[in-house]
Amino acid sequence: MKKLFISSIFLCLMASVAFAQRPPSDKIETEQGPLTVQPIRHATLTLSWNGNTIYVDPTGGAAAFDGIKAPNMILITDIHGDHLNVETLNALETEETVLIVPQAVADQLPESYKDQLVVIGNGETTEQLGMSVRAIPMYNLPENSESFHTKGRGNGYVLTMGGKNIYISGDTEDIPEMRSLENIDVAFVCMNLPYTMDIYQAADAVLDFEPAIVYPYHYSGQDTEEFKKLVTEKNENIEVRLRDWYMGN
Questions:
Q1: Alpha-carbon distance 35 to 187, whole Å?
Q2: For residue 249, what pLDDT is reported?
Q3: Which one, of 144, 142, 156, 153, lies nearest residue 209 by Cα?
Q4: In the chain, is it the N or the C terminus that has fewer CB atoms within a 10 Å radius of its CB?
C-alpha cells in the first residue's frame, strides 16, 4: 500500500512538471462548442473539440501529454523526427486512434499501425469524427530535389470543425498554396531557418491570406515579437497569439 501511495505521488509530481512546462490552453468558440488549443512544444500541439482530441505531430513521449485525453485522431505532417516520432506514438494510447498521414509517413510507420491509417495527399480531403481534414502542400522554395521539404512529400492540413477553419502549416515556406487560402479562422504558421521560412516571409504570407488568429509555432530561434509587429502594423484585425512553445528548454 505504501509503495502504491508513493507511486501515485510520483505520477502526480511528474504530471505537475509536464503542466508547468507548457503554456496554458486557449478556447475558441465554434458552432458546436469550444475548441481547446493546447501548445505542447515546437511543432506539437493538441486540439480538443466536440468530445474528440486531436494530436498534431506528437513528440516528447507520453509525459508531454499528461492530463490530456488520449487521441481520437493524430495528424502527422512529415517524416522528420520533430514531426514523426515512433517512440512517442508507441508510448501513447492509440488503439482506437485514426492516424491521418501522407504516404511518405505511412511508409515509415510500423506494420502495427497500418489498419489505423488514413493516407491522403496534397489536395485530398477525408471526413473523420464530424470534421473534414484537407491536405495542403508544404515545401521549400525554390522547388528542387535538394530541398529540406520537397513538394508532395508532406502535408499541411486545414481542419473544418463547427464552422471554423483551422490551418496547420507543417514545414513550409510562403508558398502560393498558403497565400491563396481563404476564410481561415486559426492558423499555426512555422518560421525557422534554414528549414522553413523567416519571419518576414511568414508575415508577408499571413498578410496575404488574413487568418483571424495566427499562432507562430515551430519557430526555434526566431523573433516572434517582431513577427507580430510586422503583421499587426499592416493589419490590426489579425490577432497574433504568442505562446512559449519552448518552456523549460
A1: 13
A2: 60
A3: 156
A4: N
